[in-house]
Write a structure and sequence with these properties.
The complex is a heterodimer of chains A (562) and B (324).
Chain A lengths: L13 H4 L43 E6 L14 H10 L4 E3 L5 E3 L2 E6 L5 E6 L13 H12 L15 E6 L4 E6 L17 H4 L19 E7 L3 E6 L12 E6 L3 H9 L5 E3 L2 H8 L2 H6 E7 L3 E6 L9 H9 L3 H7 L5 E3 L22 H10 L12 E2 L2 E2 L1 E7 L3 H16 L3 E7 L1 H10 L4 E6 L9 H4 L17 H12 L3 H18 L2 E3 L1 E10 L2 E2 L19 E2 L6
Parallel strand pairs in A: 1-10, 17-18, 17-19
Antiparallel strand pairs in A: 2-3, 4-5, 5-7, 6-7, 8-9, 9-10, 11-21, 12-21, 13-19, 13-20, 14-21, 15-16, 22-23
Helix pairs in contact in A: 8-10, 14-15
Chain B lengths: L1 H28 L17 H10 L6 H13 L13 H36 L4 H15 L2 H15 L20 H35 L2 H8 L4 H24 L2 H4 L2 H6 L5 H11 L2 H29 L1 H8 L1
Helix pairs in contact in B: 1-13, 4-5, 4-7, 4-13, 5-7, 6-7, 7-9, 8-9, 9-13, 12-13, 13-14
Classes of the chains: A alpha+beta (562), B mainly alpha (324).
Chain lengths: 562, 324
């Protein structure tokens, strides 16, 4: 299982994505793949959209896998993927992203933005209702947002999105308004969150409310049962006014082990599973798999990178950082570790992100040039083959990776062996997750392997690379600080014109390629397996799940071979 | 005997307190803090936000104060609530406990039930054909890694023969109560097998060496001289003496009833304490980790005590010495 750091998602699609303005979406369809120095032909991967194929059949049970038990089914308290996977069926978000990364209305029917870009008025759908018959009101939405900003509520996912919130008020039964202290181009992306039924939390401790384990539905499915560490069951919600889901019931099975999940898939006990690289190889050669199942492989917005800590005397110099990138043989990683299904990236986005500039070529793998850069930066070997040093300090550092990130560790080992050839020592050190996060959060490391996983298309790099966001105040882990980059990032997030904003982000991309605040490694394909009967799949740069309708559009074909 | 038990119980109190202090300290000295989220977390929080979480859970207070609060609650049998889902820790343990007890209880039972006859028979003829064959087989079993055996068993019985279910505690369609017993037992078969064979091999060899040793002792010879049959001497005279170390060992095996098995529970998607413990450690869910550690400590002390009492009951020498 791939594990990694995930990214904060802040922001919204941009003013451009919001309906109150009649601009084109800021996010066009996927740009052409980046040209990379790898000689490998692009794999047969890409977007799958079966949403208009065949006539959906209603009925049956969809059996999905959760890799871990949700800790809560309270939409505000959610913090992990399993929680989001279940809640998507049960509670509608105000807005959602569609497969093209556009913001589309969900529980809300529209949004108006004030001329100064500080205030938003959101109107809820008139037919939105809870399964107990009560309407979903502006009061519910205001209650939810106030809980998100309540310092006593650990709403880790949504809190950062509302840090600049000044006030939130209900205007009438259906409309409410929010006011922020600063304009922010990606603000509307903050409105992708579910609304809680205020009347169910009255007089209850919010963190321990009954609804946290049995949420009231305003979505296409309603909660039925939760057996700890085993299953979560949902059934179609008859009170939902929108288009009903195709399956009668959804059953989530909590299966932590990948090999067991794969067998369950073959044994017809699961309909869907994400595969790791090893199981994908196995599936591709397994006749039993070919008989029952199909593989779905596509690129999303995730990528891995190795962050270099600018506070270390080693990595304050851009020439040194650039040399690090040029010493990592990314083409070999694509070939060897990913068997072709990965793309080299040259900046802080995946190629399908609108901000990614395919014209920016990645730095080449060039150990000789890298060695010259290190010489120029003053890191010289006193004798040929001797360790490099400067001012009496040897060039050696620890390269951290978290347990479970097998690919991350292999990438680190490759880098380490290449560095050894030019007289630099990098010791790969594997840390258990919580210990790893603690070091990275505190900025107490020299280099660390991270994965960026996008849960929304917000390309705003501010939180990761702006000098004001140095750990521990923010998540600029390597404390990268460049006045030029700061300027571009600040201007981009305040720029309300989509084209001009894109130009600034692309300028930043080119700048980052040469500044190399981190070693940007690859954007690897995600691999899923489905029983053949499941139809109506649609992939997107946000994956199969994080979009609307996403899994709500899936259906089971009765005649498919089982 | 009563004074012996009472003294042992009293001694258990400072021991438990010491264990609580050590576990508490180790937990807080270990790197990582709660609130960082598990590896499945979708979004990262900044160091600042993590600090706020620490304040929310009272983790910014001095360690002695945190410990005093916690131990005070535990003394009132309140295990606190989980940092992760804010439910009472006791409730989370109660959910998982029956599954782990069923799994590990059966495993221990089977291990002893097979190990003792195997050990006695093998020990009856040391270096005999059965002893050699069973010895080789048991060593092989003992060295077989559980995760590998589990995968082999799954492949054979679940995927190829389709006799047994692959995962979980019961089928969806299984009726509740007694009618569903067969289904539940079928689900138990493989995980129990995986947990049994290692203990079985270990205990069988222990019994075998005890019996082999006792067999050549004077009292067995004397019993044979008085006309006891070969088997009678073996079971009635040699075996009870070989039993003493097994009872002590069983005292050490019993706590495993509660501690669960992370690997087997993971592979068979079994909702037990092992998974709860493991997940809690990854998430640094202190209240749950502390409660489970304490539970294991109590179980260990209780089982050791029970084993000592059983030894005293079986062995007059210990009993008289203890009573004196």
């Amino acid at each position: 299982m791939k594990r990694g750091f995930a990214a904060l998602v802040l922001g919204l699609v941009g003013a451009a994505g919001c309906r109150a303005r009649s601009e084109a979406p800021a996010v066009p369809a996927a740009p052409a793949p980046a040209r990379t120095p790898t000689a490998i032909a692009a794999p047969q991967l890409g977007f799958l959209d079966e949403s208009r194929q065949g006539t959906p059949v209603d009925g049956g049970v969809l059996r999905r896998r959760l890799t871990g038990e949700p800790t809560t089914l309270n939409g505000v308290l959610q913090s992990s993927l399993p929680e989001a996977q279940v809640l998507q069926y049960v509670q509608r978000n105000l807005f959602d992203f569609d497969g093209n990364l556009r913001l589309v209305p969900g529980l809300a029917e529209g949004m108006e933005t004030s001329a100064d870009g500080l205030a938003y008025t959101i109107a809820l759908r008139a037919d939105a209702a809870w399964e107990d018959g009560k309407p979903v009101t502006a009061r519910d939405a205001v209650f939810t947002i106030r809980k998100i900003v309540d310092p006593k509520v650990p709403a880790q996912v949504f809190k950062p999105l509302f840090e600049e919130l000044v006030s939130v008020e209900a205007l009438d039964e259906r409309r409410f308004s929010l006011r922020f202290s600063k304009p922010y181009a990606f603000r509307p992306m903050a409105f992708v969150f579910p609304v809680l039924p205020a009347h169910r939390f009255e007089g209850q401790n919010f963190l321990k409310a009954k609804d946290n384990r049995a949420p009231l539905s305003d979505g296409p499915y309603r909660f039925v049962a939760w057996k700890a560490q085993e299953t979560i069951e949902l059934e179609r919600n008859p009170k939902y006014a929108g288009p009903p889901g195709h399956f009668d019931r959804i059953q989530f099975r909590i299966v932590p082990d990948n090999a067991t999940a794969y067998r369950m898939l073959l044994d017809d006990a699961l309909d869907e599973d994400e595969l790791d690289a090893g199981l994908k190889q196995k599936a591709a050669a397994d006749p039993a798999f070919a008989a029952c199942c199909r593989l779905v492989e596509f690129y999303n917005l995730d990528y891995n990178y190795i962050v270099l800590n600018n506070r270390s005397p080693l990595f304050g110099d851009a020439r040194v950082r650039r040399a690090m990138t040029m010493l990592l043989d990314r083409a070999a990683i694509v070939r060897g570790l990913y068997r072709g299904s990965a793309r080299i990236i040259s900046g802080p986005w995946a190629p399908d992100s609108p901000a990614y500039d395919a014209q920016v070529e990645p730095l080449p793998f060039d150990p000789a040039a890298a060695a010259r850069l290190l010489d120029e930066a003053g890191w010289k070997a006193p004798a040929p083959g001797a360790p490099r040093e400067k001012d009496g300090r040897r060039f050696e550092f620890e390269l951290l990776v978290s347990v479970g990130s097998d690919v991350g560790r292999q990438i680190d080992e490759m880098l380490s062996s290449e560095l050894a050839r030019v007289g630099v020592t990098a010791r790969v050190r594997t840390l258990e997750w919580a210990a790893f996060v603690e070091k990275v959060d505190a900025g107490a490391f020299e280099a660390a392997s991270l994965a960026w996983s996008a849960v929304d298309p917000n390309p705003d790099p501010y939180f990761y690379w702006h000098s004001s966001q140095c750990a521990p105040n923010g998540i600029n882990d390597g404390c990268y600080a460049s006045p030029e980059a700061d300027r571009l990032m600040t201007e981009a997030r305040q720029e309300l014109d989509p084209q001009r904003r894109l130009a600034k982000l692309r300028g930043l991309h080119r700048y980052f390629r040469d500044e190399a605040p981190a070693i940007f490694v690859v954007n690897a394909a995600r691999k899923y397996a489905f029983r053949k009967r499941v139809r109506g799949l649609a992939t997107s740069p946000l994956g199969l799940y994080g979009i609307w309708p996403g899994p709500l559009g899936w259906w089971a074909s009765p005649e498919a071979a089982q | 005997m009563i004074r012996y038990v009472a003294r042992r119980l009293l001694l258990a109190v400072p021991t438990l307190f010491g264990i609580a202090v050590i576990v508490f300290l180790l937990l807080h000295l270990a790197p990582g803090t709660p609130g960082a989220g598990g590896a499945d977390s979708v979004r990262r929080v900044s160091g600042k936000a993590a600090e706020e979480m620490r304040r929310l859970y009272g983790l910014d207070r001095p360690l002695p104060e945190q410990f005093a609060k916690w131990i005070g609650r535990v003394a009132r049998l309140d295990l606190g609530e989980s940092f992760v889902d804010h439910r009472p820790v006791g409730e989370r343990i109660r959910e998982a406990l029956p599954n782990t007890l069923a799994l590990n209880g059966l495993a221990l039972l089977f291990a002893l039930a097979f190990a003792i006859p195997l050990g006695v028979v093998a020990g009856g003829h040391p270096e005999g054909a059965f002893d050699r064959a069973s010895g080789a087989a048991l060593f092989a079993l003992y060295s077989l890694p559980t995760f590998w055996a589990a995968l082999l068993l799954q492949t054979l019985f679940c995927v190829q023969l389709r006799w047994l279910p692959l995962f979980g505690t019961a089928s969806d369609a299984a009726p509740a109560g007694l009618a569903g017993l067969g289904d539940r037992l079928a689900h138990l078969a493989l995980p129990v097998t995986c947990l049994t064979y290692g203990t079985l091999a270990f205990v069988a060899r222990l019994v075998r060496s005890g019996v082999a040793e006792a067999r050549s002792s004077d009292y067995v010879l004397a019993a044979r001289a008085r006309g006891a049959s070969r088997n009678g001497a073996l079971w009635r005279h040699a075996f009870p003496n070989a039993l003493l170390p097994v009872i002590t060992l069983a005292g050490l095996l019993l706590p495993a009833l509660l501690s669960g098995s992370v690997i087997v529970e993971r592979i068979f998607a079994w909702p037990g304490l092992g998974r709860l413990y493991f997940d809690s450690i990854l998430a640094r869910d202190y209240p749950v980790i502390l409660a489970l550690s304490l539970l294991s400590a109590v179980a260990t002390l209780a089982a050791t005590l029970a084993a000592d009492i059983a030894v005293a009951a079986v062995d007059p020498r210990v009993r008289d010495g203890a009573a004196g």
